[in-house]
Amino acid sequence: MEFYNYSAVKMDGKEHSMEEYKGKVLIVVNTASKCGFTPQFKDLEELYEKYKADGLEIAGFPCNQFAAQDPGDNDEIHSFCQLNYGVSFDMFQKVDVNGSNTHPLYKYLKNEAKGTLGSSIKWNFTKFLVDREGNVVERFAPNVNPGKMEDKIKELLGKN
């Protein structure tokens, strides 16, 4: 199955196809609002603002699987992201990224780009970079600041 065949529920409660991102460069990231990496929301938003006109999109997926660092409901998480970090990129409803209830999109992403723990997600803010054709081109560890992805993003956007 290819990337564009998957869908997920956005914060608005509606199912959205990944096909919305066809022709775009996309960062898919599992997020948490009470994590040491939470300030990455600011860095992600800065990348989004800088490159959205060129075709960059970001899809955030809250997850509460790592030390229960995103315990709120979807409304609380959405409000937190907007109030504290001005997040304007797409946020989806909370998902599992590991285990028996792993969201199908995350099963696909993990299979396409393995990390240091094989196919498991290690922690919050694991980032997957998807090109304009829906290929998962790279996986970035949680401790990699989104700004360090900028050269690769520019390359995929054709801005080098």
Automatic annotation (TrEMBL):
Q: State the CDD domains in the record.
A: GSH_Peroxidase
One Pfam family, please name it: GSHPx
Please provide the record's keywords in A-Z order: Oxidoreductase, Peroxidase
Has keyword Oxidoreductase? yes
The protein's superkingdom reads: Bacteria
The Swiss-Prot or TrEMBL record annotates one GO molecular function as: peroxidase activity
| Matching InterPro entries | Glutathione_peroxidase, GPX_AS, Thioredoxin-like_sf
PANTHER family referenced in this protein's UniProt entry, alphabetically: GLUTATHIONE PEROXIDASE (PTHR11592)
Protein name (database record): Glutathione peroxidase
Q: Which organism is it from?
A: Anaerocolumna jejuensis DSM 15929
